[in-house]
Amino acid sequence: MRVLAIIPARGGSKGIARKNLVDIAEAPLVVHSIRHARLSRRIDRVLVSTDDEEIRDVALAAGAETPFLRPAELAQDEILDLPVFEHALRHLESHEGYVPDLVVHLRPTAPLRRPHWIDEAIELLETHPDADSVRSVSPPDKHPYRIFRIAPTGYLDPVMKHEHPQPYLLRRQDLPAMYYYNCVIDVTRPRTIFGKGSMTGDRMLPYVMSAEDSFDIDSERDLAVARLFAGRFP
After folding, report:
1. What stretches of the chain adopt beta strand conformation (E)?
2. Does one domain contain both 21 and 129?
3. 14, CA 20 to 30 Å: which among 72, 103, 169, 224?
4. Is 155 found in the same domain as 117?
5. How far apart are CA 122 and CA 187, in angstroms?
6. How many helices (H) and strands (E) does the chain have?
7. Residue 133: DSSP 8-state
């Protein structure tokens, strides 16, 4: 199968300025994802989609392809992943006639991942032809059964009351297994992106990871924590 990794890395960011170029373990965030993709046994091509000339230069030096600069209208804060991936795939098809079988989404904000996780996620989707995508998930550190809204009345309103009349009172060992999307690895199909207009479709397989292995950098605090743990991920 032809497997393409796409690493979206725009120049702007709000939480951390120029986030994709911030160093961790002596390399910019974007470079870590490029390295992971290149160390994968299953990924054939590694492409960085960016609107930024400096990120493009860094990506090229790290061994990624950057066959285009992403249009400015696809590099705004409110732009979701779908149009970015549609743009990249259409460019490859129209300029090269290249259509991958699977597409791996590796965010630079997850710099601590192991290449064999990527391969396992790819093989999971490959062996389930009816599935639309694979998403990496982890157990949450705060269980949803213990989460509340504050109702207009001012009283606490249990979010999961439809599952249990008093979900917040269950013992830890009685809480059902639940998972959150950790943003470390996504694998999808072009037919999901174009046929369903979605990065995931409605048939998502879980690639389950330990919570201790899940790092997604959105803030300075996240960055500091990731730097503390970087030594675990050579």
Report:
1. 3-8, 23-24, 27-28, 45-49, 102-105, 133-138, 148-150, 156-158, 180-188, 204-208
2. yes
3. 103
4. no
5. 6
6. 6, 10
7. E
Residues 90 and 160 in one domain: no
Across 109-142, b (16+ Cβ under 10 Å) vs e yields bbbbbbbebbbbbbbebbeeeebbbbbbbbbeee
pTM confidence score: 0.93
Both tokens assigned to 178: 């639940």
Instruction: List pLDDT tens digits, range 66-79.
Output: 999 999 999 998 89
Beta bridge pairs of residue 137: 181, 208
Q: Which of 17, 75, 23 is nearest to 50 (CA)?
A: 75
Q: What is the pLDDT of residues 108-132, one digit of tens each?
A: 999 999 999 999 999 999 999 999 9
Which residue in the block uniquely carries the two structure tokens 């959105």?
Answer: 218
Identify the sign of the CA torsion 148, 149, 155, 161: negative
Residue 225: which CATH number?
3.90.550.10
Together in a domain, 89 and 120 = yes
Per the structure, the complete domain to which residue 190 belongs is given by: 3-138+179-232
Query: The tokens 């790290």 sit on which residue?
Result: 62
Could you tell me which of 105, 112, 98 has the C-alpha nearest to residue 81? Answer: 105
